[in-house]
Write a structure and sequence with these properties.
537 residues; alpha/beta; inorganic pyrophosphatase (n-terminal core); six-stranded mixed beta sheet
Length: 537
Amino acid sequence: MDPIYVTGHRNPDTDSIVAAMAYAALRNALGDREYEAACLGQVSDETQRVLDRFGFSPPKRIKSMHTQVRDLAFDTPPVLSAAVTVGRAWELLLEHQDKAAIPVANDDGTLYGMLSREDVAGYNMAQIIRGVLEPVPLFNLLSVLEGRVCNEAGEFTDTVSGEVVIALPRSSEDKLQYPRDSIVLCGQQEALMEACLRSNVKCLVLCQAELPRSLREIPTDTCVIATDFDAYRASRLLFQSTPIGRICRRDIPICFHLEDRVDDVKELVLKHREPCYPILNENEQIVGILARYHLLRPRRKRVVLVDHNEISQSVPGLEEAEILEIIDHHRLADIQTTGPIYVRNEPVGSTNTILADMFREHGVTPSAALAGMMASAIISDTVMFKSPTCTDRDRRTAQRMARLAGVTPEELGQVIFSADQPDRSARELMFADYKEFHIAGHSLAVGQITCVDSPKLLSRKDEFLTLMAQTAAEKGFDLVILMLTDVLLEGTQLIYLGDDDTIRQAFNAEPKEQTLFLPRIMSRKKQVIPLLSALWG
């Protein structure tokens, strides 16, 4: 069954990552095994420290929810080697008559060509006219004729080729002569057999006959094969021994990959109008074939959103996916669904506070390690319970989860906030926890770094402003803000790029050189964004 991805927002913080993992764990514990945690961006150093502390690996990273070729119910017929005989391939084509063609692969599984019934029919008609068998491996010949080698020369023969002749009884011996490059089919005709052996024809096929003992000692280069088929059928089967690599279509106009978007595929299918197309994986190996009718009802990816409900913060292609649920603690934004879904949105400081209640409601206790991660996520998102978004419920829940994990909130705070900022670039720091917003016709971006050493980070203001200017130019933002939220100072050093009056009016304070200290401002969601929203109406 296809997975149901549980994912937080882009540039995920600890609450977002842990919420996805916790909800997937809850649903899997309840028997819904298809739920899978995912993340949309690079895991921050803070989140990695929490994961390492409790022995978890980061969730799978996904880049798109666009409907892709992998979401289609495409066909997976047998994939044949180029060395397979035409006869064997024809049997498979008859077994899969609903498939327009069967893929032919190289030894490493990559695409060699495509074989259709039309290819086989065209080859057969050409051979009826020519009557000449191109060189084929002896093993192929023995396979299609269900034959056996009857003499020593045959044991040293590797390939067989030549003009195919059905020998009929002749009135005189001088007519029993055939060219050396002939493949002669005959019945129990000893004189003809002897003539062929002495003429060293390429191959002698005995149809419903045996090579007499008296002829086995004749020195010859002729390969002798015996078959239980009659001469008419054997002559037809000879041509079925040709490897399909010689007759399959090699000029494939286009191939698709599992990651290709269905919208792009539709355009190309309308342009080329082939009956079917090969599908390849990331290693260029064949995984199936695509026909036009597969595009009629593509399966949409399924997703559960946690810690956000805004298109600009979610995965690209979300509009093509099926949203099953939303679990969040932010304002209601602009996500739309095609039908009613389950939404749980509560005014608490962390999504993991809501998820802890959901564990309790279902009678499931999270493991000690998962409980420790959930406690860490609550502490991170509420900035050690100092954020205005924090509620008594957040505090009680974090304490309960910490007890289950055998740690204290203070220990977790040390893991989350006390680690020194590594020597990271301004880009890494700014985009570790970064969100974009569109409010009343204004576009802005707000990054946030939670730390205990904001003066040290403030000394890198010029680096941040350069990066902020690049970001504003690339995306057309009216305002770019970087919050240096200091746990010890219980406030935020604000670095901004934009209109001074906007900052002055929104925060009722006087900025200086594109910076501003805001005491008791700890939350982007509940303090910074609401103040700007109120200003812009």
